[in-house]
Amino acid sequence: MIRSARLAALVLLASLGLGACSASDGDDGASGGTVTVFAAASLKESFTELGERFEEEHPGIEVTFNFNGSDSLAAGIVGGAPADVFAAASPSTMARVTDEKLTADAPVTFARNRLAIATAPGNPHGIGSLEDLATPGLKVVLCDATVPCGAAARKALAAAGTDVTPASYEQDVKSALTKVRLGEADAAVVYRTDVRAAGDTVEGVDFPEAAQAVNDYPIARLENAPDAPAADAFVAFVTSPEGRKVLGKAGFLAP
């Protein structure tokens, strides 16, 4: 009887010890689940890498992404789309969510981005400035005014005193860049990070007015996040030194 009681006590202590160990796994409190991240289209390459690294450091957590124009993502969140984290390409699109009190905390700026002109490889039309985009016959595409890259492009064009009539308005920066890559447009005003991500499929042209249209990128955990601990852990990872290193490699500026 005494031996049986001692055995039972040892089993109980062992189970308590295992419970304590499992509770301390991961200092950020995230132990499993799925993090759904709504992120601006221009973040696709860098956030995909960040998601993979995050999963490696947080076994059991899966990160899924919805990359789209920030305005469309904000509208989806306001409309009740289930998501844990929102990373926007401008404070104004994030404000559409914060104004509805849908974020758990104040958004944090984690990166900045500036514009460039994307042309076909070799820059066959010799585009060297925003003013050149007004050349008659040149097919130029811009992001729609409701999208952060479109709002920034209009600000830069106004600073240059240039009026451009685009061949089309695109709903996100990747769509604008694709037009150039497919030869359906001669030039597009996009982010420098997108030009870098496109490699040798396009050529980038910098212009001074881009300094007057730099976009801040805010991120926040959403108030009704289905997996709040994992969402907080992902936001912390993006804003960590490791996260900023990945973003810097992609061409983003430090906040």
What portion of the residues fall into strands of 2 or more residues? Answer: 15-25%
**Which of globular, elongated, flat, extended, rod-shaped describes the shape?**
elongated
The low-confidence runs, each spanning 5 or more residues with pLDDT under 50, are 1-26
| Approximate helicity band | 40-55%
* Average pLDDT rating: 89
Order of helices and strands: HEHEHEHEEEHEHEHEEHH
Family: Belongs to the bacterial solute-binding protein ModA family.
InterPro entries: ModA (IPR005950), ModA/WtpA (IPR050682)
Keywords: Metal-binding, Signal
Pfam family, one: SBP_bac_11
Structural features:
9 helices, ModA, signal, alpha/beta, ModA/WtpA
Describe this structure in words.
- It holds the Pfam family SBP_bac_11.
- The protein is α/β, with parallel strands linked by helices.
- Helices cover 40% and strands 20% of the residues.
- It has nine helices and ten strands.
- The chain has helices spanning 2-24, 44-57, 70-78, 91-98, 148-160, 173-181, 192-197, 228-238, 241-249, and strands at 33-40, 61-68, 85-87, 108-113, 115-119, 140-143, 168-170, 187-191, 203-205, 215-221.
- Helix 2 (44-57) links the parallel strand 1 (33-40) and strand 2 (61-68).
- It is elongated, with a radius of gyration of 23 Å.
- It starts with a helix and ends in a 6-residue tail after the last helix.
What is the topology?
Elements: H1 2-24, E1 33-40, H2 44-57, E2 61-68, H3 70-78, E3 85-87, H4 91-98, E4 108-113, E5 115-119, E6 140-143, H5 148-160, E7 168-170, H6 173-181, E8 187-191, H7 192-197, E9 203-205, E10 215-221, H8 228-238, H9 241-249
Parallel strand pairs: 1-2, 1-3, 6-7, 6-8
Antiparallel strand pairs: 3-10, 4-10, 5-8, 5-9
Helix pairs in contact: 2-9, 3-4
Family: Belongs to the bacterial solute-binding protein ModA family.
InterPro entries: ModA, ModA/WtpA
Organism: Streptomyces griseorubens
